């Protein structure tokens, strides 16, 4: 039986929804999935994780109890878990967490790491990634004894696999702490994590100023969406860089992407082309985004978005 570890990311005392697609990607015959939980709530997550294929929930802690967020100590703990439980493959979500932790784990073990995977073939130890602004897909063949993969959020559909899971406490010994995390501050603009959002509504040059982004915020609140922006809007100072979608911003793969007043440059499209459904709202029917979307609406976003918000609010109120 092959043992595969999965770093379980949580938010607001819940497993992040995008994690279930990662678990789905790791499943297969003769595989035992270990979910590594660091927030001390392994028993609370057990049933939800078991519903997607996790058979063992590993509640990682130190001799002093729960391990506070620190990428260095978390990496040390993960290495100990992998070595003592004989886990040679580790999966995670491509996120700020894994970008901070996984390279440290890979360096400690001296093993290969592939971030932002679109697909992983465990049997053949290959991983697919987008390259050259999404124009090509590269396949990486890995060699070694241990392997780390981080999957792009929402690119793999989560599928349930009914089962049961046990919860095991795993105590690690942290010999030293090379760095100290004094505080973790959440960007006030990040109501919903952009990279993991299932619905995103973004604004571009046509927004005109920062105040006009409230139109998108109002719509986003109705459908629990994240608000994004093009590079032009960010460089104009209307919104923070954390909201930028594109090659030089955040790469996203939501179920629905609504582009409002965005021309659709190559760089922007590279960051959202794997969206399941793309809707574009633009006064220019010849804009690049209109040639690449699933549904195009030719019109003024300042008329269409409020209408859309009103309709969505009416539907929600009648539910």
Look at the helices and sheets and give the structural class.
alpha/beta
**What is the share of helical residues?**
25-40%
What is the CATH domain class of the largest domain? Alpha Beta
Percent range for β-strand residues = 25-35%
- CATH architectural name of the largest domain: 3-Layer(aba) Sandwich
What is the succession of H and E elements?
EEEHEHEHEHEEEEEEEHEHEHEHEH
| Radius of gyration over all CA atoms, rounded | 21 Å
In total, how many beta strands? 17
Specify the number of helices.
9
| Number of spatially distinct domains | 2
Unreliable stretches: none
Architecture blueprint of SSEs:
Blueprint: E1 2-7, E2 10-11, E3 14-15, H1 19-26, E4 31-37, H2 42-50, E5 54-62, H3 71-85, E6 89-93, H4 96-109, E7 113-117, E8 119-121, E9 126-131, E10 136-141, E11 147-151, E12 166-172, E13 199-203, H5 213-223, E14 226-229, H6 231-235, E15 256-260, H7 266-270, E16 277-282, H8 288-292, E17 295-298, H9 301-317
Parallel strand pairs: 1-4, 1-6, 4-5, 5-12, 6-11, 7-11, 13-14, 13-15, 15-16, 16-17
Antiparallel strand pairs: 2-3, 8-9, 9-10
Helix pairs in contact: 3-4, 5-9
